[in-house]
Specification:
about 350 residues, D-Amino Acid Oxidase, Chain A, domain 2, 7-stranded mixed sheet, 6-stranded mixed sheet, 7 helices, about 30% helix
Length: about 350
Amino acid sequence: MDLEEPDVVVIGLGPAGARAAAAAAAAGLDVLAIDRRRRPGVPVQCAEFVPMMIAREVEGVGATTTQLIRRMLTIVDHGKPEETPNCPGRIIDRARFDGMLAQEAARAGAICRFRTTLRRVTSDGTLIMSDGSACRPRLVIGADGPRSRVGAAIGEINRDIVETRQVTVSLTRPHDATDIFLHADYRGGYGWLFPKGSFANVGVGVSLAERQHLKPLLSALLSKLTLTGRVGTCASALTGGAIAVGGRLCAVGRIATMPALLAGDAAGLTHPVTGAGIAAAVQSGTLAGRAAVEWFGGRRSALDAYEQELGDVFDVALARARRRRHETLTCYRAGARPDARALRVGWISSPHYWAA
């Protein structure tokens, strides 16, 4: 078996991995990036919302935007929508977005291989791939999602998981808001309708232990939206996936003698309440790639500085979200269920959510 020896191997070519690969390759490092999918961003496993400020990090995001969002509507216990104005964002075409970032990584000089997964890691740090190839990089970056194999190899595992199920349906009228459905049946998660032009992503997320209820919960939400004339009757593009909601992991470790970094969902940077993670993936991937460049340049403290920077950027928001999530989940103890107030104050549109 031929052994490749690139400077950096990036596992995962989503937003975090693509940005890490681009940053490292642009500085002249020999970068190999792999991804299990046939092409970037497919299948889509998220609601495709990103905050407006992501344009500061990704200049080309406008070309992948399908719709602008102006506000948020929160529906608690099937009640009347509560509007939160001035919540700007974008609904992106995730496949185009991920494809654009992967192309940027390739143009920067990274070798990008799709339909390839990390199968196992040997005791000496050799990475064995699903296509039979093997490589022993000097540094590895794990951007391979909430169930990261790189994370597992360094003992950092996302253990608090929300499972989701989502479909795409036609919208019967234009809509400029993200609709959030809070109900005690959505234990550990929520339902959503995110418009994208003449269509919408409709989904439900629940704690891992409740995943057997996802199908009936999504069916009930779709039936309600159909009966009220919000959406059409034909659903397509059924997808689902895992979201890490336990907060940030230690993002720096070692596999044998090889330094390993985690970025994006693999590092637990997904928001524990909303599940948002694209912007955090873009930002952390860029930081990971830059840290690798500095480490190869002789700054041995660069990896510890990466860990510190992740904490500086994300810890306050993640800690608050974990507290609010915990408060809501405690309502289920002893067979109880959170009432409308408990659901409302645990969501980001509530003033209570932002209290110290």
